[in-house]
Amino acid sequence: MSDMKTKFINDPEQITPELLEGYVLAYPDQVKLGGENIVVRANPKGEDKVAIVTLGGSGHEPALSGFVGEGMLDCSVVGDVFAAPGAQRLFQALQLMKREAGILLVVLNHSGDVMSANMACQLAERVGIKVKQVLTHDDISAGIGANVDDR
Hints:
It is a single chain. By secondary structure, the protein is of the alpha/beta class. It has helices at residues 15-26, 87-97, 111-126, and strands at residues 31-35, 38-41, 51-58, 75-81, 103-108, 131-136. The chain has a six-stranded mixed β-sheet, sandwiched between helices. Helix 2 (87-97) packs across helix 3. The model has no long low-confidence stretch (mean pLDDT 90).
């Protein structure tokens, strides 16, 4: 067995914060960190526009956070590697994005993401944050004969 390394990882416990730190350092004119594992636009759009927020696990960057920027997402809430971010972190992002025009929350159809989104939206509703969810599906099907829940 070889001692050759195939990845550059300083500390496996800090992989998500470190990759996001590197991402925002690489594109400071496009994105910045708005909180722990929360990527936001470096130049926010007007408060009169609906904010577009999404969430999802890390490990496949830039993935969702790569869509944060002008004409795209306003905020991406990042979980650990292949794990949804918690409802509290998403709620924190919804508080950051609060505006009179409201928030559109784009939720990938993964059970952890859906659960976190539902819980965060309940919290947001309690404090008067206007949020509407849209549930998306993967672009790859499990197949014609697959169970409809697996598509």
